[in-house]
Amino acid sequence: MLIKKPDSIKSSQITPESIYRNRRQFMKAGLGLAAVSSLGLPSIAQALEYDIPADLPQYPGPEWMRAQLAAAVRNDAFSTSEEPAPYYNAITHNNFYEFGTDKRDPVRKAQNFKTDPWTVEIAGEVAKPGKYNLEDILKPHALEDRVYRLRCVEAWSMVIPWLGFPLADLIKRFEPTSKAKFVRFETLVDKEQMPEQDSIFSTIDWPYVEGLRMDEAMNPLTLMAVGVYGNALPPQNGAPLRLVVPWKYGFKSIKSIVKIEFVEEMPASSWNIIAPGEYGFFANVNPEVDHPRWSQATERRLPSSLLSPNIVDTQPYNGYGEEVAHMYKGMDLKKWY
Ligand code: MTE
To answer: 335 C-alpha vs ligand 1 centroid, how far in Å?
Structure first.
């Protein structure tokens, strides 16, 4: 990616002492703003037993969403038993270019991002198109807690516990027609709230757009997420609604979705538009197909440090081959990267 590599996370932050120091900086910089108001509320995360240190902000989400979040149940069948990344790493090391290109920009600049009320447009080849309040989109769905690996194309990775529901369940409700071969997603455009969208140096032609083939969208692993670590999504992680496609490079997991469109042709996707020779539409995690500028054979699992880089082998389909490899049978994965 024009996305930087190696990324800018400081190795010092993984030792307990420096985590402590960084937390203090985090709070000192006033980054908790929206979240600070949430301190003192009962912690939904505690119900799911995630370790969220008391001095880090929590994101309980809008009032109407809380009971649903609290009722989320762990889905072990779809969860890795690997240890989730510390909460700190997940909410401070982000790619969300709308807020800037540095890994710290989203946490620094997204705290006042308004994510309630929120509208999602369902469009295209579908029986029930329309603009729906997020509340109505979510209402019928029981939330699951699923612990997935997230592998960024920049060769870092994290284990993250998401709260969400299968995209397939949402798709079925809106009844796509037989012409719907792909699903296209769009992120919000709001130059006032998302400073990078107003930058003349921005490489992305906003909105950020992504897409999946219909069978990929319907795969039971594909998740619409509204939370992490037992709470609502922090704005920097893509609140209030994002996609999580764990066998694909992280850039497919589009954040802050405002439009879901059913289309006949393979839709354009933001990184593919910018650098088609580097980022394909499919973007399945593949240790055997290197990025033109770096190897994809291994990844740096966060947290990592100079002394303990925590480099692990990258697995085909990010370890989800059993669930997804059948969808790509016979495809030349070097061509369709
Ligand atoms: N969605 C939008 N709208 N804008 C972005 O810049 N970055 C992508 C993806 N979704 C991005 C996005 C990339 S490159 C990655 S790796 C993941 O979000 C990172 O998700 P995280 O910050 O929650 O770890």
So the answer is: 24
Which residue ranges form the domains of the chain, and what is each CATH number?
Answer: 24-326 (3.90.420.10)
- Residues 115-120: contacts with CB within 8 Å, 24+ apart? 115/62, 115/235, 115/239, 115/240, 115/256, 116/61, 116/62, 116/240, 118/240, 118/241, 118/258, 119/258, 120/241, 120/257, 120/258, 120/259, 120/260
Atom 21 of ligand 1: nearest residue by CA position = 94
pTM of the shown model: 0.90
DSSP string, 147-175: EEEEE-TTSEEEEEEEEEEEHHHHHHHH-
Cβ(95) to ligand 1 under 6 A?
A: yes
**Residue nearest atom 24 in ligand 1 by C-alpha distance:** 94
In degrees and rounded to multiples of 5, residue 16 shows phi and psi of -55, -40
C-alpha 8/C-alpha 16 separation (Å) is 19
Whether 234 lines ligand 1, by a CB cut-off of 6 Å, is no
pLDDT tens digits, the chain, 337 residues: what are they? 555 444 433 333 333 344 444 555 555 444 544 443 344 344 556 557 788 999 999 999 999 999 999 999 999 999 999 999 999 999 999 999 999 999 999 999 999 999 999 999 999 999 999 999 999 999 999 999 999 999 999 999 999 999 999 999 999 999 999 999 999 999 999 999 999 999 999 999 999 999 999 999 999 999 999 999 999 999 999 999 999 999 999 999 999 999 999 999 999 999 999 999 999 999 999 999 999 999 999 999 999 999 999 999 999 999 999 999 999 999 999 999 9
- Closest ligand 1 atom to residue 236 Cα is 22
- Listing DSSP states for 83-129 in one string gives PPPPHHHHHHS---GGG-SSTTHHHHH-TT---SS-EEEEEESBSS-
Confirm or reject: Cβ of 99 under 6 Å from ligand 1. no
- Looking at ligand 1, which residue's alpha carbon is closest to its atom 10? 254
Name, in order, each residue with C-beta under 8 angstroms of 202's C-beta and a sequence gap of 6 or more: 97, 196
